[in-house]
Structures are given as C-alpha cells and as structure tokens.
C-alpha cells in the first residue's frame, strides 16, 4: 500500500518553482543536494551496505541466555528465556510448565544440599585433626626456641630495657615490670629476681572520701603495703620515685598521704630521683632527714599544687626538705609553684645541669639581679627553663633596665616564658639581654605578647638579638610564641644563626573568619603586606632584597606634609658583641624604630612603610629543614614560593627542607592547594591548615531552640 492510500498520512508538498533552477546552477554538486531535498518516494529503496551497517548498530532484543549448566541439571524451558527478568505475566498453561520445571530443580537442590553437608562434615573433621597436630607441633617447637637457651642474666637485661623510658613504672599489668610476670612462671621468677626492674615507681594514692576522709584509711593501708612490697624487691638499687596528690591538704588528708610517704623514709639512702606533685606541707615524714641521709640524690622535682588563701605569701624553704640543700650529687632541680611563692634553698648551683623554675604569682628571687647573680654560679648548667609570674596581683618590683651580663658556658637549651605585657623586674628582656651562652643549641621564647601604653621595656625580639650577638652560638632550634613580629628585628636575628635547622613561630591571637570574606575586606588585606610576608620573602632562596610599601590610595593624594608623617621601620643598628658595653645595646633596643610593630597604632598615620633591609648575597638560614609558622594573613602564594625555593633547584650550600607546617586565617586557594599536593607527592612532609567557619550557612537552622534534632 502506498502512502497516498493511507488516510492517516499527509503527502509531502511539491518542491518550490525555484528548485530546478537552483539545482542547475550548482552543476556537478547538484546531485547531493537534490538527493537531500528530494521528496520521499513511494517506491522501496534497495538497502546498501551502509544501511546494513547502521541497522546492525541499532539496539535489538536481549540476547538469548546461554546455558552453562551441566547435563544432569534440568534445562530451563526455552520458551521463557527471553521473558526472564521482565514484566511478562505467564498464562495458566505456562504457569503449569514453569511449576513442573521448578519442582524438578528443587529435587536437584536437595541432593546438592546433602552433598554439601557431607563435605562440611569431612572438612570439620580434617580441621579438627589439623588443629590437634598444630598444637602438638607448636609445643615441640617451643622446646627448641632460642629464647629458652638465653641465660637468665640476658633476660634480666632485656627486662630492664622493657621498662618505660619517659616515666617511672606504674602498677598496671599493661606495662613492665608487672606485664613480664604475666607471660609465664619462669619469666615471673626471673622478673622478681631482678631488682633493677623494681627500682622505679609512680605512686598514685587512692581516692579520698572528701565527706569523711578517715573512711579511706583502709584503702591507703593496702596501697602502703603494695608500695612497700614493690620497693623491697629493688634490693640495693638506686630508686626513682614519683608521687601525685590531687586531694586536699586538711589534717586528715595530710595523715593519709603521710602513711605512704613513711614507707619511703627507710630507703632514703637509695633515693636517686624524686618527683613529687604534692603540697609541701605533706612532707612531714621527711622531717629530720639531712644531706648525709641522701648520698645518691641526683634529681629533685617539686610541684606545690595547693591553693592557699594568701596567694601572695612567700614561704621559707620547709624544714622537711632540708636534705635537698647542698646534696652532694644533685644535678637536676625543678620547682613549680601555682600559688604564693617560696625562697630557694642553698642548693649546690655549680654542679647543676638542669634547672626548671616556674611560678604563677611570686617568683623565687626578690628581683632579676638576684636571679642573674644566682645563675652566674651555674657553670655546668646545660638546660635552663624560667617561667616567670603570669599574674598582675604579684607585688613585684617594676621593670628597670639591668646591666649584669653573665656567661653560661655549657648551656645547650634555654626556655624563657612569661607575659610580655607584665613589665615587672622579671620581664624576659632583662634575662635575655644579660645572658651569654656560646654553646646554645635550642632557644624557646614563650608567653603572651602585648605592649601597654607608656611601656619602657624593650621588645623581646631586640633582647633575643642581643643574646645571639653576645653568644655567637651554633643555634639549631628556635621556637617563638606570641611575639610581635618586627620584620627587621626578626630577620636580623635569623641572620645571626645560619646553623638554624628548625624554626617554629606560633601566634595564638589568630584572626578567626566567620564566613566568606567580603570584597571590601579582601581589598583591605591586599593593599598591605603583613609582617609574615616580609619574613617569607626574606627566607625565600633567590630573593636578594625584599621591600614592601604599605599605603592607602587616599594618602597618596595628600601633600608633602602627609608624606613626612609616615612611620618607617628602619633596619636596626648592629649591636656590640659580648665584649662591648651593654648600655649601647639597651639604647638600641629602646629606640622608637625598634618598638614599632608591623601594624601601625591607632593614633598613627594610616600610611606605613614596612621594609626589610637589603639582604646579603648568601641565603638566610641555609640549613633550615623544619618550618612551623602561624602565618595568619600572609600570602599563600608567597608561602608556596618559599617552599619551592627550598625544595626545587637548590643552590649549593642550601639544605632541602623536610617538614613544613603552617596555619592560615583564610580560605584555601585552589592554586596553592595544587602546588602543595605536588610537593607532598614528591615526598615533602607538608601540613597546612586553614581557619574556616564551621558552617558556611550564615542563617540559623529552622530547628534552632527546639529540644531535639529534626
């Protein structure tokens, strides 16, 4: 039937009159166009090869399911092979045929289940026999274990090395020496016969019933017996003992603590190190002990964790601890006071190698001059930590510039901690500017920054520079926390320590972003370069000079008088060496140029020029390998440039950086992310964090204020 015979099909319209004339003008190319525009013909067309190929590409019915079943499995009816997994609904006859097939298959499944049960039973029997055989073989292999042939003396040495390395042994089965006795009876016998493994003990008293402390006596008595039994196993070995007390200091509690401390008194001749976190009034059992009673004492650590009513009281050294005075072998001395204060005993300062002093309110000396005079006698001191008072309530003398230089010839580690805005006599600058440590390897300057109005104390960075110039030390690690970053001062300090391997700078007053920054906020940050950017430029290998101008567009439109009102941070002058007059150093540190921060004060002009002085040709800190810096508002791209300059194409004499950690108060830049991923893929240990909002949605949840989640 032709298309014209079908009433549902409308015949196509004839071509327009211009059709033939256009075709004639196209000449030889008219055939293709004519074929495209020719109306469909009623005559069937012969199918060519191309049409056949196209037909083969068209989707067809799903292929028949190939039967991969074995001969003994009933073959499924071929009638339904193309209807499986479809929505086809079989008729009654087909249902009967399908049921017949399913019934035959179920019979076969029953046979298979029976066979599987037989095989599983056989497998269980074989597994049981293998387990029995393996148990017998393991027992025989244990007989020929090389560990059995180790002499007890070797095992004793191994047991000693199993003890915790960073704290005294605890009374728990998860650690040696208690763990060693849980392995086997032989190991238990050897561990009990090894005094060295019982020569250290950390004592944690039982909890005290605060409503009725006397009811805790039974628990303390059991603890006392355990401590006594433990330490008696140590034989004649020197003892390392630590004790922590978190209860109160009432009379009944003092008695409970004394019941345990009394066990230690008969063994005082073997005390090697004592570490007590106990109120000093608890040491009544030690009254009467003298220096002669503690001939082996090498280390003493005391932490008075009391809370007295009189927080500014300064106590005398207690009579119960007089044995620590002039101890012949004392090398390590640590004293921490959370409240009040105490005067130090006449300990043998010249033989100390480690000194740790910390006080929150009143320090252990009347002023910094007395402290420096005391430190000057520590000729063998290798590690010194001074954590100055943090409270405003202490009745301490006001800051006064001190000129009392001392030399600590053996000092390797120095840590100075204190609030930089509390300008009393113990301001850290008085300590740093008067120290000379020619062997110093590690320097830590910690605390909280701040500079109150009218302050006369110098910036700590200037004091650090003075220390480094005096000492000319091979410093390897520098850790600075919450210090105002003056780029010129900081770079000048780094220039003095080319041996630096690790640089850590943390600023805990980081700006926190609460949402996507507005365009005007971003523009305000981009118009100026923060101090961290200048430091990054200085540390980037290959840059000869870094100079950044910070100014507002409106200020540029001002007259010359406005230009003269700008504040400029100039490079600080060279400080004298250890042999020069320290008064010149103090004058330089107090100059106005050196006390300016990278952010201009509110009353100053809004236009500030920050400059890092031209650098010598040699790279800054060529041995730097570990970099940990809180970069806040610094440029992420500058940070990547810094990393790249110390990771790729290194010049001769510059070490490759190994570890990079930093924190940005910004959202992560995609380009920076890609560069850091590349560095990590190449092996760099890089850890970068961003302080971003917890939730980008600024609108509160519709369920806010309801009792439970939606």
From TrEMBL:
Residues covered by region (Disordered): 1-22, 35-85, 551-615
The keyword Ion transport is annotated on this UniProt entry: no
Entry coiled-coil feature ranges: 109-136
Pro residues bias locations: 9-18
Signal peptide location: none
Entry keywords, A to Z: Coiled coil
Composition bias, Basic and acidic residues: 35-52, 551-567
Highest taxon of the lineage: Eukaryota
Protein name: Uncharacterized protein
InterPro entries, sorted: LRR_dom_sf
């Amino acid at each position: 039937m032709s298309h014209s015979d079908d009433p549902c099909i409308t015949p196509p319209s004839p071509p327009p009159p211009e059709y033939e004339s256009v075709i004639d003008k196209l000449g030889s190319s008219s055939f293709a166009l004519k074929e495209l525009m020719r109306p469909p013909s009623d005559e069937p067309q012969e199918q060519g090869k191309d049409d056949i190929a196209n037909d083969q590409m068209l989707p067809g019915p799903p292929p028949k399911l190939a039967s991969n079943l074995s001969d003994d499995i009933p073959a499924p009816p071929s009638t339904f092979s193309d209807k499986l997994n479809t929505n086809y609904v079989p008729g009654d006859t087909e249902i009967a045929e399908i049921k017949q097939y399913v019934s035959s298959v179920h019979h076969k499944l029953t046979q298979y289940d029976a066979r599987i049960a037989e095989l599983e039973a056989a497998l269980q029997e074989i597994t049981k026999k293998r387990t029995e055989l393996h148990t017998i073989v393991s027992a025989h292999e244990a007989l020929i274990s090389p560990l059995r042939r180790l002499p007890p003396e070797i095992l004793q040495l191994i047991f000693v090395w199993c003890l915790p390395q960073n704290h005294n042994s605890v009374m728990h089965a998860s650690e040696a020496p208690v763990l060693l006795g849980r392995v086997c009876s032989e190991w238990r016998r050897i561990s009990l016969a090894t005094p060295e493994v019982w020569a250290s003990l950390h004592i944690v008293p039982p909890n005290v019933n605060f409503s009725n402390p006397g009811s805790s006596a039974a628990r303390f008595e059991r603890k006392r017996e355990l401590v006594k039994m433990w330490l008696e196993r140590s034989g004649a070995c020197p003892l390392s003992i630590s004790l922590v007390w978190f209860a109160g200091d009432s009379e009944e509690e003092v008695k409970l603590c004394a019941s345990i401390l009394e066990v230690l008194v008969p063994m005082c001749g073997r005390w090697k190190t004592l570490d007590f976190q106990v109120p000093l009034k608890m040491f009544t059992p030690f009254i009467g002990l003298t220096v002669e009673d503690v001939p082996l004492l090498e280390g003493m650590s005391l932490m008075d964790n009391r809370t007295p009513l009189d927080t500014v009281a300064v106590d005398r050294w207690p009579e119960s601890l007089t044995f620590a005075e002039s101890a012949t072998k004392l090398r390590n001395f640590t004293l921490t006071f959370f409240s009040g204060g105490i005067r130090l005993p006449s300990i043998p300062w010249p033989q100390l190698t480690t000194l740790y002093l910390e006080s929150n309110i009143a320090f252990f000396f009347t002023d910094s001059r007395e402290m420096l005079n005391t430190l000057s006698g520590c000729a063998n001191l290798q590690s010194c930590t001074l954590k100055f008072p943090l409270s405003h309530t202490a009745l301490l003398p006001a800051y006064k510039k001190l000129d009392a230089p001392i030399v600590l010839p053996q000092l390797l580690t120095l840590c100075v901690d204190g609030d930089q805005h509390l300008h009393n006599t113990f301001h850290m600058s008085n300590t740093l500017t008067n120290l000379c440590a020619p062997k110093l390897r590690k320097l830590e300057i910690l605390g909280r920054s701040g500079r109150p109005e009218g302050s006369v104390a110098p910036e700590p960075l200037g004091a650090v520079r003075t220390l480094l110039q005096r000492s000319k030390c091979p410093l390897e690690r520098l850790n600075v926390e919450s210090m105002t970053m003056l780029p010129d001062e900081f770079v000048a300090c780094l220039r003095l320590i080319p041996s630096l391997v690790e640089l850590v700078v943390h600023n805990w007053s980081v700006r926190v972003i609460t949402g996507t920054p507005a365009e005007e906020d971003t523009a305000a940050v981009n118009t100026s370069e923060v101090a961290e950017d200048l430091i990054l430029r200085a540390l980037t290998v290959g840059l000869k000079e870094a100079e950044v101008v910070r100014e507002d567009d409106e200020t540029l439109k001002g007259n010359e008088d406005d230009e003269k009102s700008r504040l400029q941070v100039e490079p600080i002058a060279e400080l004298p060496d250890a042999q020069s007059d320290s008064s010149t150093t103090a004058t330089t540190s107090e100059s106005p140029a050196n006390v300016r921060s990278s952010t201009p004060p509110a009353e100053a002009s809004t236009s500030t020029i920050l400059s890092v002085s031209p650098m010598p040709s040699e790279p800054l800190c060529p041995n730097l390998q570990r970099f940990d810096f809180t970069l806040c508002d610094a440029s992420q791209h500058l940070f990547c440039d810094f990393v790249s300059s110390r990771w790729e194409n290194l010049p001769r004499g510059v070490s490759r950086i190994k570890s990079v950690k930093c924190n940005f108060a910004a959202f992560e830049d995609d380009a920076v992310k890609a560069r850091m991923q590349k560095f990590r893929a190449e092996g760099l240990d890089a850890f970068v964090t961003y302080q971003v909002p917890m939730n980008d949605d600024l609108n509160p949840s519709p369920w806010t204020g309801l009792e439970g989640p939606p």
